[in-house]
Every structure is written in C-alpha cells, then in structure tokens.
User: Which sequence fits this backbone?
C-alpha cells in the first residue's frame, strides 16, 4: 500500500467512503457517521483552506516579483484573463446548448406541468414581476386554486433549504442597491488584515498580492532582495505543509465522502428517490462537464501546441482532480493543483504561481456550465419560455457569477440565485436542485481545477517557458 501512488490511494479511500455510507444508511449508523467520521472531513477542508489564503498571497507575490519587468506581467495578465474568459463563455454556451437539446425539465404529466407554471405565475404576480413569455395561465383558474398555490409557496419557504437560501438572498438584495461598480469596489481591500482573515475575500487578497508584487519589480533589485527571499521561503514552507497533510489525504477523503453521502440522505431509498426526480438534470450537467474535461481541455492544449499527451495530462492532474472532487473546493485544492502543474505538467513556478491562484478564484468553467443548465432546467420545469435575449443574458450573468463565486463548496448554488433573479425568475427555486447539488458541486470543482491547469500550461507555452 505504501508504494501506491497518492491518487490511487485517494480513489480507494473515496470508494471505501461510498461503501461505508451505504452500510451506514442500511444499518442506521448515519448518526454515528455524522458525529464521529464527518468532522475529520471538515478538519481536512479547514486545514487546506487556511493554507490556501497565505499560499495565494505568497505565491502571487513570488510569481509576480519573479517576472522580469512590469510589461511581462501586463502581457501575461492580459493573456491569462483573456483565456479564462474564453473558456468560461464557451462552457456556459455549451451548457445552454445541451439543456436546450435534451430538455431535462420537460414534464410529460399535464397537470403537474400546469401546477408548476401556476406556481411561477403566482409568484411573479405577487412580486410585481412581469411574465415575459406573455402567457397568462393564472387567468384561467379560480381563486380557490390560486389560494392553494399561495399556501404551498408559503410552506415551501419553511423548508431548511429555502431558509438557507433566503438568508443569502437578503444579503444579496442589500448589495443590489449599491450600483454597477460595486464588484470592483469590493475587490479593493480597505483593511488588509480583514481581507486575509476572511476566506471569502480572496479577490482582495489577489489584488493586494498583485499590487505588492508590482511594487517589488519596480524597485531596484538590491533593495528588495530580502523581501523576495522572505516571500520565496514562506511559499516553500506552506507548500511543505501541504505535503505533510497530503500524506494523510486518503484517510480524510474517506471521512469526507462518508460524511457527505450520509448527510445527503438517510437511507438508500431516499438517495434513489432524489436521483429519480433529478436524475435527468444531473445527468445533463454531468455529461456537459465530462465533455469539457475529456474533450475541450485536451483539444485546447492541442490547438495551442502544448506538448502534453492525453494520458500524461490526466495522470499528472489526477491527484488535484480527486481532491477537488472530494473537497468541492478549488481554494482548498489549490496547493495540490500548483504542485501537480509544476511537477507533472512541468509548468514553471513563475507562471503557475501567478496563473493558478487567480484562476482558482475567477475561472470556474464547471460552475458556469452548471448555472446555465440549472437556470434553463428550472425554467423548463415551470414551463417558462425564455427568449433569445434572456438566454444571452444568462451567458453574461453566469460568466460574472462564476467569477464572483468563492472557491468553496456550494458557492455556485448561491450565485445561481443571482442569475435566476437577474432574468426575472424565482431565486428560491434553487431549493429544487438543492438535493443533488453537492454531488454536482464535486464534479464541477474538478472541471474548475482542470481548466486552471490547462490555461497555465498554455500561458507557459506562449511565454516559451515550457520546453
Ligand atoms: N465548489 C466550487 C469550487 O470551489 C464552486 C461552486 O461551483 O460551488 O470551485
């Protein structure tokens, strides 16, 4: 066992976690799993997250200050952001195409279809939102039926999922009144310690690190030698910490898998029920993500002339991908992503230290594809026809939402509310896709991480630093 490669050990641990969750469900041990196994999974994510924040700081400063001059930074920065944007827009568009082709939200039962539609119209009416597809099914039913629907809409709000979502929604509405440039304002920290202390303010940490690194390259080398040395060494220490934790990764991953699955459903039949209801939707998201993973990224590498073989790429990235899958967090996976990209894909640190931490925060192709599919699925489910303009609006908002989403579990689900809201749909519909969200989150995080790695290899190649 000792000689087995890490990714195999992680894979075996994941399988054991699944097996354990089945046993635990069958024998009524879910309470035990939640109390005694799941906390180790949480500890693992916490350790990786606390390493991730300083690592982003130190690696970006090291990466930027290692560049020759500000113009190289400008060039590389522009290429990085350009590529990130292209891959994200591509993945949203791909999501839109597959969900329109396969229509997972279509309901063949006529009565259910009308009820869902009415739920939408009543909600829109009560919230003064215009029904854009011009239909008015509400006018055809009596007051009694409408009253029943209102009772249902209200009782839905009492469920745990709705409550969680609406808390976030209130926060989002509070931000809404602050004008279009607010996201830009939010990127600039007013208090560095606070930015470093809050895992959700990664963009602020990136802003500070870039600024700090730029200041270093603008100063004479002899004046900054000790600062550079300090940041280089700190970077190394944090990377070492990752190595230490990763030795225990299989154990932690087992705990994570067992815990997550035990919390998703109490019994096997409950798990099955969830999949029967949402299986088609989940399959479409999954199919799109797999097409990105096994088709789009290898193709992109080829198109840009990066000489990494298909197998070599996946073998090299597998440790990061398995970790992304089990933690559902690009930020927590970041240290291992950097390592895989350096050691296995042979991308120099100079590039990876700059490209990957930014990518973990702003580049989320998996998340944006999932948002496109989820929004249209929810519209189909409620029998709402979205116009071409609304669908294009989804491309824009899903792209922005994936940039703004924090690299932590379920961040994409929260951003989904913003996308729904922006095209006049009920943000609380997220509760419908909530039951399968964690498993899809695990899958989309793999794509998010793979996309960052792909872009870093392309940038390294274009800077002639690969061969
Ligand atoms: N969990 C994802 C990530 O960390 C974000 C999301 O889609 O929820 O990349």
Assistant:
């Amino acid at each position: 066992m000792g000689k087995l490669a890490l990714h195999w050990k992680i894979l075996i641990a994941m399988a054991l976690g699944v097996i354990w969750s089945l046993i635990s469900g069958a024998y009524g041990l879910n309470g035990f799993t939640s109390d005694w196994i799941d906390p180790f999974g949480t500890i693992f994510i916490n350790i990786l997250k606390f390493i991730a924040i300083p690592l982003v700081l130190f690696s970006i400063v090291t990466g930027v200050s290692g560049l020759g001059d500000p113009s190289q930074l400008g060039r590389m920065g522009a290429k990085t952001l350009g590529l990130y944007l292209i891959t994200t827009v591509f993945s949203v568009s791909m999501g839109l195409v597959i969900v329109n082709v396969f229509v997972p939200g279509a309901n063949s039962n006529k009565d259910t279809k009308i009820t869902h539609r009415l739920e939408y119209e009543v909600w829109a009416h009560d919230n003064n939102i215009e029904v854009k597809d011009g239909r008015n099914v509400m006018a055809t039913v009596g007051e009694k039926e409408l009253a029943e629907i209102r009772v249902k809409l209200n009782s839905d709000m009492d469920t745990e999922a709705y409550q969680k979502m609406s808390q976030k929604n209130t926060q989002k509405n509070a931000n809404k009144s602050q004008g279009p440039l607010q996201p830009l304002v939010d990127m600039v920290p007013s208090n560095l310690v606070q930015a470093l202390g809050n895992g959700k303010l990664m963009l602020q940490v990136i802003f500070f690190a870039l600024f700090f690194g730029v200041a270093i390259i603008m100063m004479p080398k002899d004046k900054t030698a000790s600062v550079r040395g300090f940041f280089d060494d700190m970077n190394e220490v944090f990377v070492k910490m990752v190595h230490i934790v990763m030795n225990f990764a299989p154990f932690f991953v087992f705990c994570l898998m067992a815990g997550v699955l035990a919390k998703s459903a109490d019994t096997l039949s409950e798990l099955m029920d969830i999949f029967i209801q949402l299986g088609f939707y989940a399959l479409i998201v999954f199919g799109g993500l797999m097409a990105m993973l096994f088709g789009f990224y290898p193709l992109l590498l080829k198109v840009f002339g990066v000489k990494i073989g298909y197998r070599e790429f996946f073998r090299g990235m597998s440790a990061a991908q398995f970790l992304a899958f089990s933690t559902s967090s690009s930020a927590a996976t970041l240290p291992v992503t950097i390592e895989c990209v350096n050691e296995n894909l042979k991308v120099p640190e100079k590039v990876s230290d700059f490209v990957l931490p930014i990518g973990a925060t702003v580049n989320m192709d998996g998340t944006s594809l999932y948002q496109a599919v989820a929004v249209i699925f929810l519209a189909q489910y409620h029998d709402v026809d979205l116009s071409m303009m609304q669908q294009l609006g989804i491309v824009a908002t899903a792209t922005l939402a994936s940039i703004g989403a924090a690299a932590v579990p379920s961040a994409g689900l929260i951003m989904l509310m913003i996308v729904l809201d922006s095209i006049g749909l009920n943000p609380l519909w997220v509760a419908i896709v909530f039951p399968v969200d964690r498993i899809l989150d695990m899958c989309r995080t793999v794509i998010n991480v793979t996309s960052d790695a792909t872009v870093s290899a392309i940038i390294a190649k274009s800077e002639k630093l690969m061969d």
